[in-house]
Amino acid sequence: MSIRFTTTARRATVTLAVLSSLGLVTVGCGGGDGGDEKPKTSASAPQEGDSGPSAQNRDEEEPLAELKGTNGLLLQITSADRDSGGFVTVNGMLNNEGDKSVAVPSALSGNETEIIRNGRSLGGATLVDSKSKKRYYVLRDTDGRPLTTTGFSTIKAGDRLAVFMQFPAPPAGTTEVTFQLPTFASATISISG
């Protein structure tokens, strides 16, 4: 089971628990005047057409950075979140803005034999902390597989692919790092959390 799936499942479980709690609070706090008024809706419950925060809206937010690659590929970094376990997860969208299908360059996997052996990935990505003068590489599991999006080879014209990469976290005082991916321009991104 991938870390991304586990994280998504965990978020869904927490969201369900919060919404269930809100439902109980709304029922428990109902008016006691016995009038024929329609029940008032909770301000925290999303309404139809409401633009409150959600996973879909987060993808539509302004990206932290846009990196242009070869053959019309564009990587939009949408978040870089530090978690309490000592990791930074970088999420984004890999877009094909060209007018024909593009074979994803093998250089994105990097040049480490162990990562290349596991197929196409974004294993060549790095975070550079110029303040501490350190470079952080994509993490690997115990079998040597990179903790990043894997298993893609081509992207059709106009298609978007959600991607992620997980790195060791820089020191807590470091909030800005340079994101690098082979064949793409570099960009400075801010780490939240």
General description of the model:
The chain has helices spanning 3-28, 55-60, 113-116, and strands at residues 65-68, 73-82, 87-96, 102-103, 126-129, 134-137, 154-155, 160-168, 176-180, 187-190. With 193 residues, it is α+β, with helices and mostly antiparallel strands. The chain has a domain at 61-190: Immunoglobulin-like, CATH 2.60.40. The strands form 3 sheets. It has a 4-stranded antiparallel sheet with strand order 1-2-3-8, with no helix packed on it. Strands 6-5-9-10 form a 4-stranded antiparallel sheet, with no helix packed on it. Strand 1 (65-68) and strand 2 form a beta hairpin. The longest helix is centred in the first third of the chain and has 26 residues, at 3-28. The protein is globular and about 45 Å long. Residues 33-61 are annotated as: Disordered. This is Secreted protein. It comes from Streptomyces plicatus.
Main traits of this protein?
single chain, 193 residues, alpha+beta, Immunoglobulin-like, 4-stranded antiparallel β-sheet, 28% strand, Secreted protein
Helix-strand sequence: HHEEEEHEEEEEE
End-to-end separation in angstroms reads 25 Å
* The first-level CATH class name of the domain at 61-190: Mainly Beta
Shape: globular
The CATH architecture assignment of the domain at 61-190 turns out to be Sandwich
Mean pLDDT: 78
The number of strands is 10
The spatial strand order of the largest sheet comes to 1-2-3-8
> Looking at CATH, which topology of the domain at 61-190 would you report?
Immunoglobulin-like
- Number of distinct helices: 3
Secondary structural class? alpha+beta
Largest β-sheet summary? 4 strands, antiparallel
Helical amount among residues, as a percent range?
10-25%
User: How large is the share of residues in beta strands?
Assistant: 25-35%
User: What ranges have pLDDT less than 50 throughout 5 or more consecutive residues?
Assistant: 14-59
Over all CA atoms, what is the radius of gyration?
21 Å
Protein name: Secreted protein
Region (Disordered): 33-61
